[in-house]
Structures are given as structure tokens and as C-alpha cells.
Write a structure and sequence with these properties.
The protein has five domains: 2-160, Beta Polymerase, domain 2 (2-Layer Sandwich), CATH 3.30.460.10; 164-291, Nucleotidyltransferases  domain 2 (Four Helix Bundle (Hemerythrin (Met), subunit A)); 323-398, no CATH class; 407-566, no CATH class; 579-800, no CATH class. An eight-stranded antiparallel β-sheet has the order 8-9-11-10-14-15-13-12, sandwiched between helices. It has a four-stranded mixed β-sheet with strand order 3-2-1-4, sandwiched between helices. By secondary structure, it is an alpha+beta fold. It is 51% helix and 13% strand. The protein is elongated and about 110 Å long.
């Protein structure tokens, strides 16, 4: 017996010697680790079989591995988990001792149990972790039929109990993620327990065993294997069993894996973790649908439009049957529809888009740029959709420079995320601030690009500004907007750094800010507001160590002082274009439809704007821009030069005046599907002009028939009365999330206040509406009573909500 014990101890020591082989560098690199791990698994199995065979093995006893050794993934610091299964044999403890004691003597850490099949099943049904271990059970030695019986019984129980066990497993995972954080973005991650780590792949295998979702695919397996190799190298390098990859051990681990340095290692880990996280999120969506559908009859999955070319199907966004894969805006439009609806794009849809869909060429068409802004404007819901596109390789194809920042680590404890994720988080945060700026599209795109220079040598603000200029041109922005975008990226640190490092009371400090925003003459105040909003979004996305109440207050104070120094400007309204002047002289009413442009000239009267907008909404047209003006039939001369608003060629019909002709110029695109029949649209517009179409009743009936989706949380609408913007009208500015019939609701609210719209500028930038209305009362005068102004603001806000 002593000779047997000595022999088994020697065999155990030989198994453990494999670690020294790797640590000494003989098997450096990932390939060496894989070979060593496989070889050790074979040797360990052989050794364990020899322990059980040291004396006659009862026919009704089996030695089973669970956990990492069952998967042949045991790393040098991992625990050996073994179960000795028997059929109620007396004296089974003696059999167990023949295995347990030599393992302990060898220095391996052992987690062990002795169970009958019934006992093992009972434990598994009451202990989730025990069940997960037994799902991967693998026969090592002894009665193979007994091992197969146990595995089959545990699997049957797991599948039968899936409606209860899977939600329990989901809760356990979420608690772990909350504690351990997200592996892809941690400076010192736990390779096993953090979100996107090894444990999540094992959990996905467990879900697949329930037949509720498919198992991990090849990309996930490859990501798992990389993390397993990193964990193996970590244990070898440190000689410890800890799974947290701390900073001082990252370079030695990188060298053991044959990588250049810790940065390359971190990028590889981030890539693997994001692949796992994305796949796991899809698995959990399948689980959620499975548990919610239990006990409910399903007569089929409903499909409902989510946007042009996109359909909601079973909680995901998929391609519509008539989607045009040759449309260069389709990829971004489907992504925007998913984000705006708060739904994930189906993986199969993303894969199909990546493989077959056309992508925008330089410069991007306006529809593609608009869809990108809509995607970013969805806020936090955009992050998951962006990740789906990124996993499919679409982001780098859309924006090639993205490859330089993708998974790029930031070795700074202040930053919570890699560079690319920080950019997306900043854009998502900026979506809540779109009401603060005149150009939400430039804010969102600027937020996405503000740190893009971190992928290039030199000062990231300077190099990033050059990249932003190129991307702005690529996206098809006008040259003037490109200059704003470039300045926004170059000066994105201006306000927070100046506010915290300079004396705000010193006039030179404010002049420094003004000098910087003067990079874009004529748009200084606009750029200042953009910089202020970007500072907030950037700080919040960086982390609590980078942004707090004190810093926010300093930045806000500096912004107010700079804005005061820049005050005195006016709000211009474009003059009536010559072709509209000609149309305004048309006797009676005229309707012209050219593609997406609809122009109406008709006798001016209250409510004309919003009634026309209502007709467009009836035909499922989304208003992208609208310009409405009035031209007096008695005079076409411009307004006097002392009108600081720049209003020209406009008058309003009021008591004692001749009636004018209003010109309404819309750009409108289908909400989804094909455009409406132009003849039908024109007929309805003419019926509206002749008071033979009840627009309100038709819109209400359509609203009742529509299924309402919760969508995403967006910033609340804002209604502002802009003082001193015009001497002849009151300027009402509305910022809101765009939705069908928005212009109708705003106009209806203004009409209910007894106001007439003298001129309007309506713009939809992405998913954000920025609308300006010049209104007068029934006598044609601007409003000056504070109570009346407050009532107008409240009425419009109520309509928006």
C-alpha cells in the first residue's frame, strides 16, 4: 500500500511539473499554452484513473469530473472538481479516500463530493451552481453507464425546470456583473467573473443545454479560448490562482503569450470580451422571450413597421420584405429605427446587411447622414445598436478611421471605457443635451469624434480636428458646418480646462474663450453652446472622477460669461426665394410636388401651416424641413432696414389690410415604405385648401389605429420665447424629439392660443426637431404680456407631451 501511495504521489508531482515547463519559457506563446493544457488534461485523467484502479474498482462506482477539468480547461491555478457516484454501495468512503488523499498530497486544490444519482439530482435541483457544474460532467474512470445515467438525469431535470432555473441564472449573472464590472473596459479585469469573461461562455452553454437558445458560435469560442490562454499565462507567470489581471502583471503575461506589450494584450482582451458580451445579450433576449411566452398562446408573431426598410418582429428589428439593399442609407436607417424604438437589431439582419447592403460613398447622401444622427440621437439605446454594427465590421467600413480607436485602452483610472466606447457613450450622453444647442446634429457627430485623434500621434485635439474635418466632408456636411465640427473637436477641452485652471473673474479668461470660438466667424455663440454641451457629455462619459457638481458649475459660469460677452446678435430669417415670390403672385391657390419637395401657395389665413402639415402626416410623410412665409398682395417691397430680425418681403393679413398670399415649402419623406401617390397627395392638399377635408378627424382616427411602442427615453421637449429676435413678431423656438404629426400638434397649439404664424423655419436634424415660429396675435402684433407668453409656452409644451 505504501508503494502504491508513493507511486501515485510521484505521478501527481509529474503532472504538476508541467507548469514549470511553461513558466520556464519552453512553450512560450498561445500555441504552447494550448498544447500544455491539453497534455496536462490527458496526464491528469490517466493519473486519476490509476488512483481509482489501485485496488479492484466496484462496478457500481464512477469518477466524474465537473467544471473546468470536465471541459479540459484546467489552468495551473484552477480547482479540480470531482464527484464519486455510486449506487448506494456500503464502504464507498474507502474508495473515495483512495482518490482524495493522493490529490491533496500532490498540492492540487480539490473540490469533491460523493453522491448517488438521486442525491446528485436533488442537490442540482436545489443548488444552481451545482447544477451548472454537473451539466458539464465528464466520465473519468469506473462505471461509464452510471456516469451517463447521471448526466442524462441532470440534463432532463435542467430542461424540465428551465422556466424557473433560467430566470434564476439570469439574476445570478446580473449580480455578478454588477460586482465585477465589464471586462472589455476594465484596467484590471477579472478574466473569469467580469461581464464578457469566461464564466459567461459557460453560462451560454448551460442555456443551450436547456434547448432555449443555441450555443456559442465559432467567434465566441475563439474569444473564450483567448481569455482562457490569458488566464493560463497569468497563473503561470504569477504562480497564483487569482484571475484578476493587475497592471504590473500585464507586460509579463503579454510576453508569455507572444504579444508585443500590455496595450496589445488589453486590446485583444477587450475584443474578446465584447464578442462574448454581444452574443450573451442575444442569448438572454431569447431567454426573456421564452419565459414571458410561457402560459400564453401565441397565434403568430406580429410584424409592425419600425421605420423605412425596417420592421419590428418578436422584440427585434429586422429588414422589411421590400427593403432595398442597394440603398446606401439602408444600414444606418435600420440601425436608427432599432435605436429609436429601443429594440436590438436581429443578428441575422445585421449579418445580412454586412454581407449584402450597399454603403454610402463619399460624400454621404443626406439620407445616410440623417440616419446616423438619428441613431446617435437615440441616447443610451444607440450603444447596443452601435455595438451590433461594430461586431459585424460595419462601423470600420462606414468610418475607416474608427479602426485606430477600436478597443484602444486608456491607461488612466479616470476613464471608464476604451476610446471607442467612450466616444459612443459621449454621443449617447449628448443626446440628452440636444435641446441646449441650435444644431443637435453637429453636437452628436462632434461628440462621436471628439477623441478620434487618440488613435494618432501628437495632441489628440489637434490631430482629431483634422480627422473631424475629413469625416465631416465625407459625411456630406456643408463647408461652413465642417468648420464648426472641426473647431468643436479642436476645442472640446477648452471650457473644462479653462474653468478649472484659470480665474473666471479675470476678463482675460473670457477673452481666451471668445478668441477660440472666433475660429468660425458668425457662428461664435453656436460654437460656444456646442462646446458647453459637449463638455458635460464628455465629463459624464469619462467617469465620476472627471466630472462633478463643482466642475459643472465652473463650466456653466464660464459659459454664461462668454455668452454675455458675445450677446447682441440677432436671429435672421432667410428672405423669400425668387421662385417662391413668383409662386406667391399666383392667383388663387397652387400646389407643386417635385419629389420630396411640396410647395403650396394660397391665400394667407390662420392655421394654414399646421393644416398642411396634417395632410402630410395623413400620407405618412415625415417633415424634414419647412419654410413658410407671407407676401402681401398690395406690396412686394422689402421691410424697412431697421427691422433687426432681417424679416423681408413678409406681411400678415390683419384688420384693415389686404389679404396676403402664404407660401409653404416642405421637404418631406415617407415614414416607411414607398412615397404616396403625388396626385392623391395634391388632391388632399387642395381639398384642405377648399375646406373640404377634416384633417383633425382623419389624424385622430389614424392615431387610434396605430400600435404605440414605448420607444426610448429622450430629453424632454423645450419651448422658448426668444426675446429681442424680431421687432415685428414674437419668436417661439421649439426643441423636441421628432415623431409623426409633430408640426401639426405645435401649430394646433399655437392656433388654440389665437396666434397666426407669420414665418417659420422647421428643421429635423436626425431625430431632433428644431423649429422656429414667428407669431403674431389677431391684430398682427407681437406679444408683450408676460402672462400671455407663459400661457403660449405651456400650451405648446402640453401638446408636445
Amino acid at each position: 500500500m505504501a508503494d502504491t501511495a508513493c507511486a501515485t504521489h510521484t505521478a501527481g508531482a509529474a503532472y504538476l511539473a508541467g507548469a514549470a515547463h511553461i513558466a520556464g519559457g519552453a512553450c512560450a506563446g498561445r500555441a504552447g499554452l494550448v498544447v500544455a493544457r491539453a497534455g496536462r488534461a490527458v496526464e491528469l485523467d490517466r493519473w486519476l484513473r490509476s488512483l481509482l484502479a489501485a485496488s479492484p474498482v466496484p462496478e457500481d462506482v464512477a469518477l466524474i469530473a465537473v467544471g473546468s477539468h470536465a471541459r479540459r480547461e484546467l489552468t495551473p491555478g484552477g480547482d479540480l472538481d470531482l464527484v464519486l457516484v455510486h449506487r448506494g454501495r456500503a464502504g464507498v468512503a474507502e474508495v473515495a479516500d483512495r482518490v482524495w488523499y493522493p490529490v491533496w498530497d500532490s498540492g492540487l486544490r480539490l473540490d469533491h463530493s460523493v453522491r448517488t444519482v438521486h442525491e446528485a439530482r436533488t442537490v442540482a435541483r436545489g443548488d444552481l451552481k451545482a447544477a451548472l457544474g454537473l451539466l458539464s460532467a465528464r466520465h473519468i474512470a469506473g462505471d461509464r453507464a452510471l456516469a451517463d445515467e447521471l448526466r442524462a438525469a441532470v440534463l432532463a431535470d435542467w430542461r424540465a425546470d428551465a422556466p424557473a432555473r433560467l430566470p434564476e441564472l439570469s439574476d445570478m449573472c446580473r449580480e455578478r456583473w454588477e460586482t465585477q464590472g465589464e471586462l472589455a473596459f476594465l484596467l484590471e479585469p477579472d478574466l473569469k467573473e467580469a461581464r464578457g469573461g469566461l464564466r459567461d461562455v459557460h453560462v451560454m452553454d448551460a442555456v443551450a443545454a436547456s434547448w432555449v437558445a443555441s450555443g456559442p458560435d465559432g467567434r465566441v469560442r475563439a474569444a473564450h479560448d483567448l481569455l482562457l490562454d490569458v488566464r493560463h499565462a497569468l497563473h503561470e507567470v504569477t504562480g497564483r490562482s487569482a484571475d484578476r489581471l493587475v497592471l504590473q502583471e500585464q507586460d509579463p503575461v503579454a510576453r508569455a503569450l507572444g504579444l508585443d506589450d500590455a496595450d496589445v494584450l488589453q486590446r485583444s482582451i477587450s475584443e474578446a470580451a465584447r464578442t462574448i458580451t454581444y452574443a450573451a445579450s442575444h442569448t438572454w433576449r431569447r431567454v426573456d422571450r421564452f419565459t414571458k411566452s410561457r402560459g400564453r398562446s401565441r397565434r403568430g408573431v406580429e410584424r409592425s413597421p419600425a421605420g423605412d426598410g425596417a420592421v419590428e418582429h418578436d422584440g427585434e428589428v429586422v429588414l422589411a420584405r421590400n427593403a432595398d439593399l442597394n440603398d446606401p442609407a439602408l444600414v444606418l436607417r435600420v440601425a436608427a429605427a432599432a435605436a429609436q424604438a429601443g429594440l436590438p437589431p436581429a443578428p441575422a439582419t445585421v449579418a445580412r446587411l454586412a454581407e449584402h447592403a450597399a454603403l454610402p460613398r463619399t460624400p454621404w447622401p443626406a439620407a445616410a447622414r440623417d440616419a446616423l444622427v438619428s441613431l446617435l440621437g437615440a441616447g443610451p439605446a444607440a450603444i447596443g445598436v452601435w455595438e451590433a454594427l461594430d461586431q459585424a465590421g460595419l462601423i470600420v467600413r462606414l468610418l475607416p478611421v474608427w479602426e485606430r480607436v477600436r478597443n484602444r485602452p486608456q491607461r488612466n483610472p479616470v476613464h471608464r471605457f476604451t476610446v471607442d466606447r467612450h466616444l459612443v457613450e459621449t454621443a449617447a450622453g449628448a443626446a440628452a443635451l440636444t435641446r441646449e444647442v441650435a444644431r443637435p446634429d453637429l453636437l452628436l457627430v462632434g461628440a462621436l469624434l471628439h477623441d478620434i485623434g487618440k488613435g494618432l500621434p501628437g495632441d489628440h485635439s489637434v490631430t482629431g480636428a483634422v480627422v473631424a474635418r475629413d469625416i465631416g466632408t465625407r459625411l456630406g456636411f456643408p463647408e461652413d458646418d465642417v468648420r464648426v465640427l472641426e473647431a468643436l473637436v479642436r476645442h472640446h477641452l477648452l471650457l473644462p480646462e479653462t474653468a478649472t485652471r484659470r480665474d473666471i473673474d479675470d476678463p482675460v479668461t473670457v477673452q481666451t474663450v471668445i478668441a477660440a470660438v472666433s475660429d468660425v466667424p458668425g457662428r461664435e455663440r453656436e460654437l460656444l453652446d456646442l462646446l458647453a454641451a459637449l463638455a458635460v457629455a464628455d465629463g459624464n462619459a469619462t467617469g465620476p472622477a472627471a466630472w462633478g457638481a463643482w466642475k459643472a458649475a465652473l463650466v456653466a459660469d464660464l459659459t454664461r460669461r462668454a455668452a454675455a460677452a458675445l450677446s447682441g446678435g440677432s436671429r435672421p430669417v432667410p428672405a423669400l426665394p425668387p421662385e417662391q415670390v413668383a409662386l406667391a403672385r399666383h392667383d388663387g391657390a397652387a400646389v407643386r410636388i417635385t419629389g420630396s419637395r411640396i410647395t403650396i401657395a394660397a391665400p394667407d389665413r390662420p392655421g394654414l401651416l399646421w393644416r398642411a402639415a396634417g395632410v402630410l402626416a395623413l400620407h405618412r410623410l415625415a417633415v424634414k424641413t419647412a419654410r413658410t412665409t407671407s407676401s402681401s398682395t398690395s406690396s412686394s417691397s422689402p421691410a424697412t432696414s431697421d427691422d433687426v430680425s432681417g424679416d423681408r418681403g413678409r406681411s400678415v393679413s390683419s384688420a384693415g389690410e389686404s389679404q396676403g398670399t402664404a407660401v409653404l415649402d416642405f421637404t418631406a419623406v415617407p415614414e416607411y415604405g414607398t412615397p404616396p401617390d403625388p396626385a392623391s397627395l395634391e388632391a388632399d392638399l387642395r381639398r384642405m385648401l377648399a375646406d373640404r377635408l377634416d384633417v383633425a378627424d382623419r389624424l385622430e382616427r389614424r392615431a387610434r389605429s396605430m400600435r404605440v411602442r414605448p420607444g426610448v427615453a429622450v430629453a424632454p421637449p423645450r419651448v422658448m420665447i426668444v426675446e429681442d429676435a424680431s421687432r415685428t413678431a414674437t419668436v417661439v423656438e421649439v426643441r423636441a424629439h421628432d415623431r409623426p404629426g409633430l408640426l401639426w400638434r405645435i401649430g394646433q397649439a399655437l392656433g388654440a392660443c389665437g396666434l397666426q404664424v407669420r414665418a417659420a423655419q422647421v428643421d429635423t436634424l436626425g431625430a431632433e426637431a428644431v423649429d422656429v415660429f414667428y407669431v403674431v396675435d389677431a391684430e398682427g402684433r407681437p406679444l408683450d404680456d408676460p402672462a400671455t407668453l407663459a400661457a403660449v409656452r405651456s400650451r405648446v409644451l402640453a401638446a408636445l407631451r
